[in-house]
Amino acid sequence: MRLRTLKLRVFAVPVVALTLLAACGSDGDKDIANTQPGATGTVTVFNAMEPEEVTALQKVVDEQINSKVQYKATIEGSSQFEEQIKIRVQGGNPPEIAMYPQPGTVVELGKSGKAIALEDMGFNIADMEKTFGSYFMSLGAYNGKHYGVPTNINLKSMIWYPKKAFDAKGYKVPTTFNELITLSDQIVKDGTSPWCVGFESGTATGWPATDWMEDIMLRTAGAPTYDKWVTHQIPFNDASVVKAADQFGRILFTPSYVLGGAANTTSINFGDAVAPMFTNPPKCMFNRQANFIASFFPKTAVAGVDYDWFPFPKMDQPGDAALFAGELSVVFKDTPAVRDFLGRFAGTEVQCASGRSIGTSRISPNVNVGGDCYANKQLADASKVLTAALKANTARFDASDLMPSAVGSGSFWTGMVKYVQGGKNALAGVLSDIDKSWPTA
């Protein structure tokens, strides 16, 4: 199967990948400049960002790129990205560039011939591997060619909390899942719902729930079993997956744990879910989400004062696991402006400027982007956690993004919605249905 081959590239982490997000690159590191003097026209960059992120990233692009070139690049986001990009590609009207969160889909595009190989556009892959690491570059590779430029990476194993209110209650950051459950029980006794949860995301509704499953799978089953799960070497209703879903259910279905109740979470946008955490007093104490969720926090909230985060706690497995994801920019229309934009956008200067924007809260996969490029200590610390887990080989890429799209961005997403809405008794049927949906070839 295609993803069995991909898995071998994904999880056999080369040494160069271990410098991902390092404080600085060596003197030999190069950006991926593909300068095209005099390039004109327009470049549309389509992605799955929410409006606030689009606005913030467009500001960076305007200041760092559009003001210096003769073409205009426009960031276009849509909560219907997965559906709309398929329609546009199949209809022969794709954007110049699309930012895909799913490496599996990028490989499918390369295989189908719809995406344009970086080699065919004059990009130096050796230089790109020095800049991003062979590991991340391999995610978008098919049959010896590369179809995706790493332009973002994010740590997902983060639990955010309203620091000022949390500290005032005398609560302590939990280091194990059992401690997290005990603290959640205490928060309920104190009259507050522990968890703010939202799984709605347009046609991608359900993906935040799959992230929960993946974080727990890493910590209960371990990385080797996680790898087998991703590539369907174990069935989707394997005992290890059932166990992870049950542990997820401890958060979802324990009375008073989830603000508004589990069944309502599928109608609450993941970005809106954090708002009750910032009321006075907070209506909830925890939100499990990736580093980019900070872009949805109130603009008046101060990092390290009004909010902070801690890693998803340990469970059955030793070591500190980390779930992460990223973005691969794929080219559908090769023009001088597209080549120039992509080289600039993925380069150190623009990536550093993006990191400084709290509105984007993006972490760069470019190894030359140092800790001083980030908007706050929270983002810089997230990069350190990810790097440490990569070195320990306990970090894994988002499973749903590596699975075949029919499952990863299909039945897995919708199945988690059914589980959340149906409760514990729905689990067996949900996992069985997802397993049956796995492509046979």
Structure description:
The chain is α/β, with parallel strands linked by helices and 441 residues long. It folds into 2 domains: 2-153 and 325-380, D-Maltodextrin-Binding Protein, domain 2, CATH 3.40.190; 158-320 and 404-434, D-Maltodextrin-Binding Protein, domain 2, CATH 3.40.190. It is 40% helix and 14% strand. It is built from 17 helices and 12 strands. It has helices at residues 2-11, 51-64, 81-90, 103-112, 125-132, 134-138, 163-168, 177-189, 207-220, 223-230, 239-253, 336-345, 348-355, 377-391, 399-402, 405-422, 427-436; strands at residues 40-47, 70-77, 97-100, 141-142, 145-146, 149-155, 158-161, 193-195, 284-288, 308-311, 322-331, 395-397. Strands 1, 2, 3, 6, 11 and 12 form a 6-stranded mixed sheet that branches. A 4-stranded mixed sheet has the order 8-9-7-10, sandwiched between helices. The protein has a two-stranded antiparallel ribbon with strand order 4-5. β4 and β5 (145-146) form a beta hairpin. The longest helix has 18 residues, at 405-422. Mean pLDDT is 89; it is low at 1-29.
